[in-house]
Amino acid sequence: xxxxxxxxxxxxxxxxxxELRQQPMTHxxxxxxxxxxxxxxxxxxxxxxxxxEDPVPAITFDKAIPILRMFDEGKARxxxxxxxxxxVEFEHRFEADLPLYLGISRNGLQLHLSEHHGDASPGSTIxxxxxxxxxxxxxxQGKRYGxxxxxxVQQGWGQVLEVHDPFGNRIRFCQD
Length: 176
Known about the structure:
By secondary structure, the protein is of the alpha/beta class.
């Protein structure tokens, strides 16, 4: 769609074109002509209907995706896929015998797990706001995972269910 500023530029070019042919045209006449060409009754209607210039683009961010360090692919899959119920989005290795970089997700939560040295520090904590924390606890308790049976703890900021992965990382699920 043509903006109001673009329509004004069209009117200027139309006026300049007429002047080159020795057919003077007022600015108002040029605006009215452009309005008619764009399918409007008159310039006032066009200027009310045409969008303004696009605002200056703002810096925006999408949601962050935490990267957690892992050291053993089998233990990571057992904890994140089997126990927590995540699904694999992608797997990447530069070569077959090189470290794994794994993208996982569950119901809008995305995590990246990396065996690459320097990608993340073991012992990290991520805070995950969520809904229906009791359902998550019931699900996790029902799996009878041998390395943890997390409980909900009431804090001043909400209910917290903290799980610890095999690599020292913590995920704090929180419902306010």
